[in-house]
Amino acid sequence: MATMASLHSYGHLIRSARSGITYVPRRTLTYTPIRRAEEQNNKPEAPKQQSSSTFSSIKNFFGFGGKASEAPKPTVRKASGPPKKEGALSTDSIFAEDEAGPKLTASGRTPSRKQAGAGAPKEGETAEEADYSIEKRNRANMAAVLDPRPKARLTWERKMAIREVRQRGRLSKTQQIMRAERETLAKSHWFKTSIKKLGPLARQIAGKNIDEAIVQMQFSKKKAAKDVLGHLKHAKNMAIVRSGMGLGAQAVGPDGEEVPKPKPLTIVSKTGERKTITDPTSIYIDQAWVNRGPYGMDFDHRARGVINRLRPPHTSLSVVLKEEKTRIREWQDREARELRKRKAKLWTQLPDRPVTQQNQYYSW
C-alpha cells in the first residue's frame, strides 16, 4: 500500500520530466473550445539528453534544476472551419436591387443582382466565387408546391366562370351583407380560470352594447371580470382601428350637404327584449363563447410534509363584434318572415260575380 501511494503522489513529477509532451490538465463542469498545441518551428530538433534520475526530475519541477529549457514553447490556436458561403438571388426575385448593395459573403464582393446572360465572373471575382450560386428559381421548379393539381385548378376556374355568367354579375344576399356590414372576431389570451366560472360572464355580455358590457364588467364581483374587461377594451379598439366600426354616421354628405341624424328606432331582439337604437354604427357583441385551454401545474403544501399536485385550468374568451345596423336588418327580416307566414294562413272568400252557364236540365 505504501508503494502504491508513493507512485500515485509523484505521478505528475514523472510527467513533467518528459519535455517533449505538453500536458494540459483536464477541466470539469466547464466548456472550453478545442485547442491544438503546435510548435512554431516544424523543423525536427535533436533530442536533448534528459536525466534519468528521479531526484533530478524533482529538482527541475520545483525550479532548482538550473536553466530552463531553451526549446520554443508551443502556441495554441482555435480550430476554425471553412468560410461560409451564401447563395444569390434569382433574376426575377422581388428582393433583388437594381443598384449594388451591401455584400453578404464572408470572402468579399458579389453582385446584388445578376443581369441577363451573366454567367462569367466579373472583375474582382474568382471562378470559385461565381460558381457557388444556388439554382435559379423559376416557375417550373416551384410548380410542385404552388400548383400541385393543375387539372383541378382549371376545373375550379371554369366552374367559377360559369357561375359568374349564370348570375350575370349579380351578388348573392350573403355577398351583399358582407359588403354592406362590418364585423370582427377577437380571441383573448388564456385566462387562469375554468369554463364554469367564465361561462356566466360570457352569457352576461352576449347581445349587449360594447360600452354597456364594459360597464357591467367594471362593477362585477367576479374575479375573472377583470380579465374580461381588458379583453373587451382591446377588442373595441381593434374593431375601430382595423374595421372602421363605431365611427358614427356621416354628418356631411359627399356633396357637402348636411345629412340628418337617424331617428331612434325601437326593435325587438330574438329573446323578446325591446331595444332603442340611436346610432346604427355603434358596436354590440353578437356572440361570446369560451374556449378550453391547457392545464397548468401548481402545488398545495399541506401538513406533515404532504404536497398535493394541482392542475389549474386555462380558458379564453372569443367575441364577435358587429354594428347595430346588422341587428336592425335582422329584426326587419324576422318581421317580414312573420308577416308572410300570417298572410299564408289568412282565408279569403270567393269574389262576388254572377253565375252563368246554368240550366235546369242536364247537358247530356
Index terms:
11 helices; 364 residues; 15% strand; two-stranded antiparallel sheet; three-stranded antiparallel sheet; 34% helix; single chain; extended; alpha+beta
* Average of pLDDT: 78
Largest beta-sheet characterization: 3 strands, antiparallel
Summarize the amount of helix as a percent range.
25-40%
Please report the number of helical segments: 11
Topology:
Blueprint: H1 2-9, H2 11-16, E1 35-38, H3 54-62, E2 75-78, H4 127-131, H5 139-146, H6 150-167, H7 173-180, E3 183-187, H8 195-205, H9 210-218, H10 225-243, E4 265-268, E5 274-277, E6 283-295, E7 298-301, E8 307-310, E9 313-323, H11 324-345
Antiparallel strand pairs: 1-2, 3-9, 4-5, 6-9, 7-8
Explain what the structure shows.
It is a single chain. The chain is α+β, with helices and mostly antiparallel strands and 364 residues long. Helices cover 34% and strands 15% of the residues. It is built from 11 helices and 9 strands. It has helices at residues 2-9, 11-16, 54-62, 127-131, 139-146, 150-167, 173-180, 195-205, 210-218, 225-243, 324-345; strands at residues 35-38, 75-78, 183-187, 265-268, 274-277, 283-295, 298-301, 307-310, 313-323. The strands form 4 sheets. The chain has a 3-stranded antiparallel sheet with strand order 3-9-6. A hairpin with a 5-residue loop joins strand 4 and strand 5 (274-277). Helix 9 runs antiparallel to helix 10 (225-243). The longest helix is centred in the last third of the chain and has 22 residues, at 324-345. The protein is extended. It starts with a helix and ends in a 19-residue tail after the last helix.
